[in-house]
Amino acid sequence: xxxxxxxxxxxxxxxxxxxxxxxxxxxxxLPQVRGVVRRMIGHPEDSDDVVQEALxxxxxxxxxxxxxxxxxTWLTSIAARLAVDLLRRQKRWRAEAQIAYANLCYTDPxxxxxxxxxxxxxxxxxxxxxxxxxxxxxxxxxxxxxxxAALVLGDVVDMSGREAAKVLGxxxxxxxxxxxxxxxxxxxxxxxxxxxVSKTGICHQCKGLQQIAPEAKRGGPFPDVADFAERAAVVRxxxxxxxxxxxxxxxxxxxxxxxxxxxxxSTEPLSTCGRT
Length: 276
Hints:
The protein has helices spanning 3-15, 19-41, 44-60, 71-89, 97-107, 109-119, 128-140, 145-156, 161-168, 172-193, 205-212, 228-237, 246-262. It is mainly alpha-helical. The protein has two domains: 1-90, Rna Polymerase Sigma Factor, Chain: A (Orthogonal Bundle), CATH 1.10.1740.10; 93-276, no CATH class. 67% of the residues lie in helices and 0% in strands.
């Protein structure tokens, strides 16, 4: 049997109530599904909840699957829309969320201890591309959820406009409009925020984290991310949620969610961490 025939057989069996067949289909689709959801939401537990909800919903509605798209695209569509729904229910983050968090780390011994403990973990190593990908997702939380979803699918997952529009349940023209709006907002945010993009940017977190890492774990040279397209390319190729900084970033995601929900922390830099 060809790959397509095997997939058709698994779908038919799943629609007849065979949970094992459904699980085989889902297992092949999960890397893409998890990648999209995690890059949209960031927060590890919230991301896992959305993936599990998507699997439950897909199993309940497997009878409606008509094979007009690949099963992975169908499951990704369910998950991406659930992720958008969750983001709509949660408070949108400030573009300077990482500055607020850094300020609290600078003044609060508990926050400082968490970061030092994460950096001291045996499996930790600083990798600037992973941190750029984390930063991209974090700043992305400041966008309207529909636009953030378009950005992730179009510029990070690198789907075609047609496939991304199908995933989000909109026309290609609507998708292109949302993607264009998201790109414009991200360019504006990074111009004033990121020291890698603009020398006058207020955020030197990449350099600061490299400096506090053990010398043998400081990673390679920083990539050239002088504009939005170059940054998106770095993000697209970076490990996200699975690399040497994964546990470290999970600490950041959990704390930043708490801070942004409460509105705590100043967005004016208090620390000189990473500046020369």
